[in-house]
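User: Please look over both lines:
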Amino acid sequence: MKQFKRKLRNGFCVLLTFGFLATTQAQQAPKTTRFDLASPGKITSIYMDDKETKVVHIATDLLANDIQNVCGQMPKVETGLPKGNLPLIVAGTIGSSELIDKLVNEKKLDVSAIAGQWESWSMQVLDKPFAGTGKVLVIAGSDRRATAYGLLEISRQMGISAWEWWADVQPEKRKSISLNIEAKTYGSPSVKFRGLFLNDEDWGLQPWAAKTFEPETRDIGPKTYAKIFELMLRLRANTIWPAMHGCTKAFYTIDGNAQAADDYAIVVGTSHCEPMLCNVNAEWKHNTMGEWRYDKNEQNIRQMFEDRVKSTSKFDNIYTIGMRGEHDSPMNAKDLTEDEQMALIERVIADQRSILQTETGQDPKTVPQAFIPYKEVLDYYQKGLKVPEDVTLMWTDDNYGYIRQFSTPEEQKRPGGSGIYYHASYWGRPHDYLWLSSTAPALIWEEMYKAYQLNARDMWILNCGDIKPLEYHIELFMDMAWDMTRFPSTNEVGEHQQRWLGKLFGDNKAAELNHLMTCYYQLCWERRPEFMAWSQTEPTTKPGATELNQILYGDELTKRLNAWESLSSQVEKLKSGIPARLQDAFYQLVYYPVTGASLMNQKWLYHYKNELAARQGRSSATDFAARSEAALNRIKAETDYFNTKLQNGKWKHMMSMSPRNLPVFSKPAYALPPKTDKPEFGLALEGYEMEANKLIENNYADVLPLLNSYLKDSVYIDVFLKGEGELSWQAKAEEPWILLSADHGQLSMKEGEKEQRIWVKIDWYKVPQGVNSKEPPLGHDYQLIPPAYKVNSSIAFSTADTTINIGVTTYNPKFAELENYQGFIEANGYVSINAENFQSESGNDVSWTVWPGLGYSGAVVATSAYQAESITDPAAIKANSPVLEYDFYTFNFGEADVRVQIVPTHPLYEGKGVRCAVAIDDAEPVIIDFQTFGRSNEWKQNVLKNAAVKSAKQQISAPGKHHLKVWMVDPGVMIDQILIDLGGWKGSYAFPPETIRK
């Protein structure tokens, strides 16, 4: 049985340590040669054949400009045979470059590893390969994109960010540029087609292009697309799904767009609602073309398909086949049965393939095609819709990052293979997230790693919204698509993020920035900033009540607020140390998303604090309202700075702080406390909605939650002012073992002085010992602990005219079986466990793995053997399924509700589920099923919360030591947290903090 060291986590985030897995076999180091690109007064030249395609010319010019941007000298770009002893760069495509072919024919260059491969190139330094030359850096590409990628690999090694233009990442200036060039082969990529879907562009990309960058087109035209395609080349992406909302003219209706894509060697495809490269939303005209319904208007629809294929056949394309309704709606055929609808789609597909054969002159089996089973189309497919075997099945996520289905083992044999359409930005129900980058990078890795393991390797498309502010997500996604073997676990995601930040802002700041962004994504995991009003859309609802508990478990709302305010302080501190040349880049890539998310949380969390404070009569309600409104005003100011000040207005109209003007972006309503004639003193105790002096008259015993010596916990008391004026207060503990964070203070109308939170802790070395026993008394009710086990005291709070006594109760027995006990301990009627802190795990061929960067505790436990069989028979579960084991101790007994929280994924494919099994002590395993269906309310709440919770009843026979087991039933389930509720849990957004013995 394998033992694991505990990884205890406190608070909202931890500084994770990442690193690459050590290689298991010693490898011979590749040959490395120093190559000087530039030195004072000397600059390399770049040579290529004039017969090379446009993308090679573009990449060459980009490289030359990059070199000039670093050292101030512009390399010459020439064609023909080179001469001279200065260092030279020679780049070309096999079969298109006279220079490369000459080196191959003379056996000076071996291209056997790349010839005929997809997007593969070699890079090496040759000594005097041509007469009269010195060192020559040779880049040979298997195809036009490979050669372009090879040229831009030099820019990468120089330190040029792919975001040099798109996020204003200015490189450090140097007089000399020298590189250590490894003689190696690059590619072929892990995923054949890798690209971006420009979507929901209404609030950023389209108005920016139309009004700022490309006013001559007044839309997203060839000038804008050229910049997008340049970014894609630098990221080694090769596929675009163009912007297609009603605010944007259709891609093929703007002169120059299609040619720009071909110039940059970008393959054009389209989304699930744009068949055959047709933008139905923008191009279909009802008044002249009729109804968008194939069984009633086949001739006009078919003509549209034919015209588009005819006009695009000379370019590189991927044709989306099938047919949905207009703009992301189901097929317009409600009068047909489901079987008739499926038959109609199959007829559409057959006709589309016939059109491809006629217009391209090729066998349709050789023309790239994709079928995208999105939303209701997945239901059709699952019920038997036939799709030709050579077509790529593009599986989709549920719009919130959880892929709905993958290919079965049999489907993985299809020659068309499969791919993934994945959202990092979304417009729709239950709520949009269009404003900031809030998807955890580790989740993107987990879902795409799963896709890769299940052979979805033909096409990955990322819905990236307006591109900004999803820069890091885009780079991570493309780096994984290029070489997924470099990402065997979530550890590499953290390393990738830290390396990316280090390259942007300096290695000396990388670790601190990585910690900041890790915390940012952790907080966004628990709830995205766009979801903080507890409202929904489609239909749109008003802001609702928060689920964050303000009165128990240390006040989880205020803890979240403090965490976000702490991040704001950290990012302000870091910003001051960023070099001037990188200030604008830092603002776009780090400062604005972190600050914006923090302010959105402050706006709504202070609103919720205002509501509670007003109900309790606190004067501080007005402070909370003011802070909430100040956060909103700051969001407006920061967004205005983004649009008008950055780069002297370069990004004007790019950033919107209120996409679709949903209620979450509005100003909250604020409550006012009742007015009083004179200042009054109030107390609010952890665990109570009402203030203390409105509790049952003269009965203040045991009002604070019980404090447990085995948990070393603490509770709080708020002292606050009611009405206007000022007053002094003091607190006196009855016993010296009661420790107060403050024992006196002044309340006034000044900002921040209307209330004060007092933490109550216990000096457990001084508190009297309760009854000593071998074990707790059998059958006692934890809420009614026998007096012999309790130690009671009180705290007196007083002002000039008021005294309020607050009872303090401690539980301080000494049980022999808890001597040196290292497990989990029951708190006030519950045991809370972070799943990664198991005592042991075991399994036969499948094991559990800890993945950091996911879940509420900062890590989850998962089984990633996705091809493993599901195990559903209880006897087989106990005998063969991998199991996690947790030791815990209760002072209570009886029925317990074992609540398990997981990451809300979907079944891998038909025949699989989202299940685990649990049991306490020697009970039979009870299977827990987390699967959701369609857009049910359960699914909506799961994706809004990034958590799925289900429970199983178990019996705890007696107080004392117990054992919880969690078994795998289906592979891929990610266990986050566990709550064993014996009746004491009062409800909270997240499970209470882990109850580990301290």
